[in-house]
Amino acid sequence: MSDATLNPMTGARPDKLASSRRGAGVVRPRVWPAVVILAIQWVAKLLAERFWLGEPAWFYAVIWGPMIGAGLVLLLWLVASRVPWLDRFLVLLVVLAGGAAVLLTDPTGPDVGGFKVVLYALPVALTAGTLWLLVTPPLGWSWRRLGLVVALLLPMGYYSLLRLDGVWGEFTANLSWRWSETAEDQSLAEIRRRQAPTPMSAPVKPLELEPGDWPGFRGAERDGKLHGVRLATNWAKDPPQLIWKQRVGPGWSSFAVLGNRLYTQEQRGDDEAVVCYEADSGKELWVHRDEGVRFVEAVGGNGPRGTPTFNAGRLYTLGAKGKLNCLDAATGKFHWSREVTKDSGAKVPPWAYASSPLVVQGLVVVFAGGPEHKAVQAYDAETGAPKWAAGEGTHSYSSPQRMTIHGVEQVVIVSEQGLSGIDPKEGKVLWNYAWDEGIQRVIQPARIGDSDFLLGTTFSKGTRRLHVSHGKDGWAVEQVWQTKAISPYFNDMVIYDNHLYGFDGAYFVCVSLDDGKRCWKERGYGAGQVLLLDDQGVLLVLTETGDIALVAAQPSALNELARITALEGKTWNHPVIAHGRLYIRNDHWMACYQLKTEAVAAAK
Fold first, then answer.
1. Could you read off the pLDDT of 364-402 as tens digits, one per residue?
2. Taking the model in full, what pTM does it have?
3. Topology (CATH) of 183-603
4. Where are the alpha helices (DSSP H) in 52-121?
C-alpha cells in the first residue's frame, strides 16, 4: 500500500487503524530509546550526588540532565514512537498541561513552579509513563493509552500539591504540602503574640564597644576568629546550657552583640526589620521597619542576608533590596538611609544584597554592583552623603573587609571579577586580581600573614593563594598556587597554624597553606559555617541541620570533640560567641546557649 493511502489524521494504514480500534493491540510503541535516556539520566544523578557533589559533573547531571533528558524523550516520542499521530500529540498535550498545572499553581510563583517541573515532576512523570509502556505489551492499545495518560498525570498532580520551601546545600528540595503552615507563618504568629517593645530612652553614656563584644559580621576583622576565650570541650560533663530559644523572622543574617544587646535583621510580612533583642532573655528592645521591601527567593530562602554593623553608637544595615540604614544602636532612632540601587544604577541581585556594611575612616562602604566603576559605594557615616564609587563587578555576595597591607589601610572586596584593594579615603583602586569565571562569589577573602590572600570559587573552580606586593613601581598581585582541594560556595573558611579549614560542597576539609594540598576531607556537617577559637585551636562548627560541634584544628585527621543538637531546620547563618554565650539562628529560629569558658590568661 502506498503512502497516499495512509490516514492523514493518524498516519496509520486503514487496516491497522481498524484493527487498533477493535483493541487488537497492533500498535507497538518504540520504547527502548526512552528507557536508555532515562536510565542514563537517573544513574548520572545518583552518581553525581554520591561522588561529585559541588563539581561541574554534579551540576550538569542534577540541573541540566533532567532538562536534556525530557527534551530528548519527548522529541523521540514525536518523531520515532510509531504510534498514531493523534496519540503522539495527545501525550505531548498531557505533558504540557500537567507541567502548566505545576507551574501555575505553585503558591510561591511561576519561577519556583518551573523549578519543580523541570527537576522533579517531569522526570518522574516521563519515567512512570515509560515504565507503563514497558510492562504492558499484552494489553490492547486503548488500555495502554489510557494508562499512559494516568501515569503521566499522577506525578504532575502530586507535585502540584507540594510547595517548595527552599533547597539544602546539596540542592535537594525541601518540599511540603502546599496547604500546610509555613515556618514563616509560625514565626510571624509568635512574633505578633509578643509584647510590643516600649520606646527606648537614650542612655546617659553613648554605647561603646567593650571587651567581649562582637561588632558585626564574622567579628571585628571579619575573619571568623575569637580571641581570648577557651571553651570546655567535654560536653558530656559541661554541655552548653540553653538560655532561651524563640522564633525569628526569615533571613540569613548573623548577629552583632554589644553588651546585653543583640542585633539582627529579619523579614516580617511585607516589611524588613532591624531588631534589637535583650541578650539575656531574647526580649525585643526596639524594632525598625522598612515597609514594602519584602524579598522572596524560594530556592535560597526569603529575607535579608546582611548583618548589622556597630560603630560609634550607631548601627548600619543593608537590606535585601539595597536599603542602607543608619540607626541609633541604643534606641533604634532613625538617622538616615540610602537606596544603593538608585545611587549606583545597579539592579537587585538574584539572591539579594548580602553585603554587611563596613565602617572605615568615617565612611560606610557596601558592595552595590553598579556599572561604570560603581561596584562599591561609600557614604559619609554621619550624614549618609555619597562620597565615592569605585571598582568593577556586578555580582558579589561577599562583604567589604578592612585590611592594612604593607602599611596602607584599604578596603578589600571580592566580586565575580576577582579581588581588589581600594583606598577608602579617595575610592581609588590600588590593585586588582582578575579571575572571572562567570560565577558569583560569596565568601570573604581569607588573609594569610600580612599580604597573602585566599580567593575561592565554587563548582570545582578551586582556590588560589595570592601575594600582594608594593614597591616603587606600585602595587602588584601574583598567584602563589592554585588548588582544587577546596571550592567554597557560601561557607566561609578560617586559618589556623598554616592550614585552612572550610567547606568544599558537603565536605569539611583541611588544606595546607604551603602548597594547597588537602590533608583530610570528611562529611557530616552539610553546608555549615565555622568559627575559630584562635587561642585554643578548636573549631566551632554550626552544621546545616542545626547541630553544634567542636572539632580540633589539626591537619592529621578530623577529630570531633563534642556535639549537640541546637536548632531545627536548615541553618546557614554564621554563629557568634560573645561574653561566654553562643548565639545561633536560621530563617525561623534563634537561640542563646551559655558556654563554660575560661579566659586565656587564667588558663595559662
1. 999 999 999 999 999 999 999 999 999 999 999 999 999
2. 0.90
3. Methylamine Dehydrogenase; Chain H (2.130.10)
4. 56-59, 65-80, 85-105, 110-116
